Structure formats: C-alpha cells, structure tokens
UniProtKB/TrEMBL annotation:
It comes from Hirschia litorea. Pfam families: Aminotran_5. Keywords: Aminotransferase, Pyridoxal phosphate, Transferase. This is Cysteine desulfurase. InterPro entries: Aminotrans_V_dom (IPR000192), Cys_dSase_SufS (IPR010970), Cysteine_dSase (IPR016454), PyrdxlP-dep_Trfase (IPR015424), PyrdxlP-dep_Trfase_major (IPR015421), PyrdxlP-dep_Trfase_small (IPR015422).
Length: 414
C-alpha cells in the first residue's frame, strides 16, 4: 500500500506541487500552467501509488471471495467507502454508494424516485445547473408528466432566493441544486434551501462536484437528502464517484440496475434485494478506482487545510484582479463567497480561439458551454472561457495566465 502521509505543520505550495508529477511537464517548450481543475483535477503520487500498489500486491474481486487476496481487496474497497463517509460526514457507510460519477448518481436518484412522481408534480432546478443535474429530471418530465421549475440567477451570479421562494409549493417534490456552480463559482445558501424545501415536503439533492473539493462538507448539518460528487474533481481517478442518501430514503428506493451483489435472493419466481449501499452497486465495481478515491480523500484530509484554502483563494483573486484591466473582458459570476472559478468572455474573440492560443504558452483552460446551456442563454453568450484553480496552482502561474491572455487577445484582435 502507499506510504503513510508525511506530517506537515504548515501549508507549503512547493511541497504540494512536488507530489503531482504531471506538473513537471512542458507544453510547447513552456511550463505547464494547469487551470482546468473544475473539469478534472490532477492526481498526486499518493493516489497513483495507492492504485498501483493495490493492483500489484493485493488485487481480486470484492465481497464474495474467501481467500486472502479477496479479503484484502474488500478491506481496501470498504476503507475507501469509510473515507468518503468521513469526508461528507455521513452517519453511516450504508449511506454511501459508489457510482461511476456524479452523473450516474443523479440518474440513480431520479430513477429511484420515479415511481413517486405523478403528472403535475414539480421538480425545481436552478438556471446555473450542470446538464447532469438537468437532463435526468427532464426524463421524469417526459415519462411521468413532472413539471420543471427554474430558479433564476441574479446579475452577480448568485441564486435568486426570491425566485426559489415564490415557486416553492406543496406540489414541489424535488429540489436539485448545485452546492457550487461549475461556471460561476457561486455557492448558494443551500442550508436555507434545504430547510424551506423540507418545510414544503420536498426532498433536496445537492450537486457537490465542485464544492466537495473546495468546501468542508457536512451532510448531516445541512440535512441534505442526497449529495453527489465525483472523484476526478477531488484529485482522484475518473470513473468513480459517490452518492450520499439518507438511509431511510435509500431503503425505500428500487434498485437502479440488476445483477450481482445487489440481490438478497434470486429464484425462478422472484427476487429480493440487498440493503443499501449494495442494493445500488450491481456488478463488479470499479475497485482500483475506489481505492484511488479513498486515497484522494485521505490526501485531501491531510493537505487541504484552512491555509491551503486561503492560498487557493489568493490565487483566484490574483487571476481576477489581473484580468480586470483587459479591455472588453467580462467576468461572469462575482457573487460574494464564490469558489475559485474564473469564467470570462472577451469582446470580439471566441473562447475556443483563446484556449488554443493560451495552450501555446503552456496554459490549460476550458472553453465552451461547460455543460450549462441554460446558463449560457441567461448570460446571452454561446460559450465562455474558464480558468479554475486547484490546490497546486501558484501566484506566479496566475501572473503567467494573465500575460498569456493579454498576448492572445492582442493576436486575435490585431
């Protein structure tokens, strides 16, 4: 297994960076400046070693074997579940389901709640949601006659709480909102949303893909019914994420898929289902990815300190301050308390062109609609550019980004 994490008394950006081998790369002869962590974050040696060592020394299928390798692999798999539980502060590991990612987690919830939805029932989502937290609810609209209600976004990118309150009603069955916008960085007042939704008799799902890496999460304190996240946003591997759900709700939901592990008994005439979480984990799981997920959480619990968060915020502020002087540039999302995501447009340029030119200078950003077309329509743009900060980014990299962006703008508007 991976070596134990070394103890560090203070945050040191160079100590962090040395643990991410990909940061030594050069792109076109320029040092890599990776500002695309909101799409997918890089992985530390601790995570890579945990996965590799598991595969090399103690790999088998989980849960049903009786031999040593099966038992060791099961222990590692379930240790990862416990680490995710602790990161979210769920009450029990039985409330933590491994999924392919947040997308599958939301689809699982939508499918599991489908039988409770009848024509005219309302599902509330916000305009700033990722498509993964929109499309599964459209399935319930198409198939069961649910009505989707949209929570509007204010001019600064904050969630319009008045829009939420005026539309919340006794017909509301589900409120599905982001805990941090992947485009605007906005952190809505989810605690108030949950309380008021519960008072109206509705369930609440939080999309925590961005928040789970930037904020301290406590699903019990929030009283969330469901919470989803993806490992690859949390310095872990792709292909795995987690769904938290309150145990009583999960126990009443039908399985999302059928197969091995999720059953109790199978006969010619019927089937009974396993208890959560295994009820929702049909088939052989992503074992090594789960080990990597657990290692990423363990790494974060050590290194994502208040000092690290403060430094990450300072890097974002350096980015934002640096671009404010660029003619024709608009920052999308300036709500107070937002996360370290800088989304912007430059008049007379296309975000794709900006991203391609920045790549020549070694700077990696994201360009497009960021799987948020309703939000793009609200912003009256077809696409935007986005620079997102990870724990490994430096103040110097922020300056390099601004310099490269100024050169890109000059080239495109020459």
């Amino acid at each position: 297994m991976a070596d134990e994490l070394s103890l560090e008394s203070e945050f040191d950006i160079q100590t962090i960076r040395q643990q991410f081998p990909i940061l030594d790369r050069q792109i076109g002869g320029k040092p890599l400046v990776y500002l695309d962590s909101a799409a997918s974050s890089q992985k530390s040696d601790f995570v890579l070693d945990a996965m590799s060592n598991q595969a090399r020394t103690a790999y088998s299928n989980v849960h049903r074997g009786l031999h040593t390798l099966a038992n060791e692999t099961t222990d590692a798999f379930e240790k990862a579940r416990e680490l995710v539980r602790s990161h979210l502060n769920a009450k029990s590991v039985d409330e933590v389901i491994f999924t392919k990612g947040a997308t599958e987690a939301i689809n699982l919830v939508a499918s599991g709640l489908a039988e409770t939805i009848k024509a005219g029932d309302e599902i509330m989502v916000s305009v700033m949601e990722h498509h993964s937290n929109i499309v599964p609810w459209h399935f319930l609209r198409e198939r069961f006659g649910a009505v989707i209600k949209w929570i509007e976004v204010s001019e600064d990118g904050s969630l319009d709480m008045e829009s939420f309150r005026t539309q919340l009603s006794q017909k509301t069955r589900i409120v599905a909102v982001t805990h941090m916008s992947n485009v605007l960085g906005t952190v809505p007042d989810v605690a108030t949303i949950i309380k008021e939704a519960h008072d109206a008799g509705a369930l609440v799902l939080l999309d925590g893909c961005q928040a789970a890496v930037h904020l301290e999460i406590d699903v019990q304190a929030l009283d969330a019914d469901f919470y989803v996240c993806s490992a690859h946003k949390m310095y872990g591997p792709t292909g795995i994420g987690a769904l938290y759900g309150k145990l009583d709700i999960l126990s009443a939901m039908r399985p999302y898929q059928g197969g091995g592990e999720m059953i109790d008994t199978v006969t010619r005439n019927g089937v009974t289902y396993n208890a959560p979480p295994h009820r929702f984990e049909a088939g052989t799981p992503a074992i090594l990815e789960a080990v990597g997920f657990g290692a990423a959480v363990e790494w974060m619990q050590k290194y994502v300190t208040p000092d690290a968060r403060a430094y990450k915020k300072a890097v974002y502020e350096r980015l934002a301050e640096g671009v404010r002087g660029i003619n024709g540039l608009t920052i999308h999302g300036t709500a107070e308390g937002k996360g370290p995501v800088l989304t912007f447009s430059i008049e007379g340029t296309h975000p794709h062109d900006l991203a391609q030119i920045l790549d020549r200078y070694g700077v990696a950003i994201r360009a497009g609609n960021h799987c948020a077309q309703p939000l793009m329509s609200h912003l009256k743009v077809s696409a935007t550019a986005r620079a997102s900060v990870g724990i490994y980014n430096t103040l110097e990299e922020a300056d390099m980004f601004v310099q490269a962006l100024e050169k890109a703008r000059a080239m495109l508007l020459a």
